[in-house]
Amino acid sequence: MKKKEYKKLKEKEKLDLKTFKDKNEGVNLKTFLIITGCVIAFVFLVFLFTKIKTGEWNLFTRNNNVTYVANAQTTKILCGGILNRKDSEYFVLAYEMKEDNASLYDSILSRYNLGKSIIPLYKVDLSNSRNNLCKDNNSNITNDISTLKLSIPTLIKVKDGRIIENYHDYDTIKNVLFSYVD
């Protein structure tokens, strides 16, 4: 009789163990789903708060009008595109934009853009490796783009695809551009 009791006890232990494992797996899955849901809700709330705080979503007014101000800007071009712009007359300012004195030229450009200038202004970054072909210490201002060499800085006035004027000094460049500003 002891063997039968021992066998029944073993079967009961196996059944209890199986029931415990089934319940434990259910609890683990339930816990995992709850934690995952909480993490997703937290990320969503942070995203929502960020959108509202930065003003991208304005939930408290009916109108979400976004207005963009159009500013006249200078356009960055490569050295090879100096003579082939669609405008009949324009300026090209060539300087190294990564140098310390680049802020001087940027301030000139911003003031030029604030004025009611009718002549477009393009800029060439001579610190860009793609423009190394036309960068040289000695200027060679020609209408042939393959032999064109620009020193730092250079302001070129182009009319009908031909260079008509060029300037190489900061003060001269500033005076020429400011003469077109109101």
Distance linking N and C termini? 114 Å
CATH superfamily placement of the largest domain: Glutaredoxin
Please state the average pLDDT score.
81
What's the helix count?
3
Task: Report strand %.
Answer: 5-15%
Considering DSSP H and I runs of 4 or more, what fraction of the residues is helical?
Answer: 40-55%
Quantity of strands, as a count: 5
CATH topological fold name of the largest domain:
Glutaredoxin
Low-confidence stretches: none
Description:
This protein has 182 residues and is of the alpha/beta class. The chain has 2 domains: 1-67; 75-178, Glutaredoxin (3-Layer(aba) Sandwich), CATH 3.40.30. Helix content is 41%, strand content 15%. The chain contains 3 helices and 5 strands. It has helices at residues 2-54, 102-114, 170-178; strands at residues 75-77, 89-95, 121-125, 154-159, 162-167. Strands 1-3-2-4-5 form a 5-stranded mixed beta sheet, with helices on one face. Strand 2, helix 2 (102-114) and strand 3 (121-125) form a beta-alpha-beta unit. Helix 2 (102-114) runs parallel beside helix 3. The mean pLDDT is 81.
Explain the layout of strands and helices.
Layout: H1 2-54, E1 75-77, E2 89-95, H2 102-114, E3 121-125, E4 154-159, E5 162-167, H3 170-178
Parallel strand pairs: 1-3, 2-3
Antiparallel strand pairs: 2-4, 4-5
Features:
182 residues, Glutaredoxin, 15% strand, five-stranded mixed beta sheet, 3 helices, 5 strands, alpha/beta
Question: Quick gist of this model?
Answer:
It is built from 3 helices and 5 strands; from the N terminus they run H-E-E-H-E-E-E-H. With 182 residues, the chain is α/β, with parallel strands linked by helices.
